[in-house]
Amino acid sequence: MSATNVETVRGKGAFPHIRKLDGGRAISKRHALTTVTVCVLVLALAMAGCNGGGNQSILMESGPRVGMVTTTDAVISWDLQSSSHSAVNYRVAGEREFTGKVLSSKDTKHHSVKITNLRPGTVHEFQVDGHPTVGSFRTATTDETPFVFVSMADNRGQSDQDDIKGLPQSLINIINDAVKRSPVFAVNAGDLFYGKNPDSGIFEKLYLSFKNAIQPLALKTSYLISPGNHEMSPFKSSTDPVGFDAAALFNEKFPQPGPLPGYEGFVFSWDWGKVHFVSIATNHFDAKLPPPTMACTASATRKLHGLMPTCRAPRAGDRYS
Q: For residue 201, which phi and psi values (nearest 5 degrees)?
């Protein structure tokens, strides 16, 4: 508001009548009241945005997405366009207000938090601070209640250029159909995009394209991934040097359980009802060891029950086997 002379006259109603004097010319009371009321409203909204950071808007690059969900915990991940602290609010579905909040204290673009102490077998809703989208998930049960889950794989296109523009329509159709079925979780068995490229910048764009494609489903249910050879191939040919650490990049994009040291995000398991599910990704980089064998895979499986495997984690500089 510009600096002016303002005269207040007490009157009836909730607000005083206001005359605005400008060079001796009187402005109508109604016009002056409207002007001041609008300015007060704008000021109030501005103050609300500055207090309790939850009201500040953010620019989301992708997400939010639901990761691993157990009877009492859920992992929520999202990506911002610029680095910042962030937080996620949650509640039991049907409640008017969000009753819990988990802070992501890191100043980063990629956020992931675990919500704990949830009710088993219950639909919960969540919302990232400053973003209007509300997602949901159902915590796992321990009884024999029937449930639906979906599995998909090999949803890549014919080239990196095609997949950066958008994943195949067949995947979009599958995602949309899966949403209608209300699964308690979804599993992707890998080959998320074409990949096979030594340029990590290309992979960054490919992961963003994939995240956008699965968003309608990942917003409403646990979405888990067992990575395939295409996203684990940072080269054009198996005889080429490895361009970057594909495993580290995958785990940055999709935080997943890591009970097996060295195979975080690749080997994990979970329970739903009376069923135990196991995910094992066998893609492996190692220049010193022979290709993975059933013995190595079996050892990795036994680790779920307390034993260590003999093969080590993929590293940048390794060759594909």
A: -65, -35
Q: Are 157 and 167 in contact (CB under 8 A)?
A: yes
Q: What is the pTM for the complete model shown?
A: 0.73
Integer Cα distance of 225 and 174 in angstroms: 16
Distance CA 85, CA 66 (A): 19
Count Cβ atoms within 10 A of the Cβ of residue 19 and give its class: 0-12 exposed, 13-18 middle, 19 or more buried. middle
One-letter-per-residue 3-state SS of the chain: CCCCEEEEECCCCCCCEEEEEECCEECCHHHHHHHHHHHHHHHHHHHHHHCCHHHCCCCEEEEEEEEEECCCCEEEEEEEEEEEEEEEEEEECCCCCCCEEEEEEEEEEEEEEEECCCCCCCEEEEEECCCCCCEEEECCCCCCCCCCEEEECCCCCCCHHHHHHCCCHHHHHHHHHHHHHCCCEEEECCCCCCCCCCCHHHHHHHHHHHHHHHHHHHCCCEEEECCCCCCCCCCCCCCCCCCCCHHHHHHHHCCCCCCCCCCCCCEEEEEECCEEEEEECCCCECCCCCCCCHHHHHHHHHHCCCCCCCCCCCCCCCCEC
Peptide bond into 255 cis (omega under 30): no
Instruction: Read off the pLDDT of residues 278-314 as tens digits, 9 standing for 90 and up.
Output: 999 877 555 444 444 434 444 444 444 443 344 444 4
Residue spans per domain, the chain = 5-51, 60-277
pLDDT in tens, 123-164: 999 999 999 999 999 999 999 999 999 999 999 999 999 999
Per CATH, which fold does 60-277 belong to? Immunoglobulin-like (2.60.40)
Report the pLDDT value the prediction gives residue 285, as an integer from 0 to 100.
55
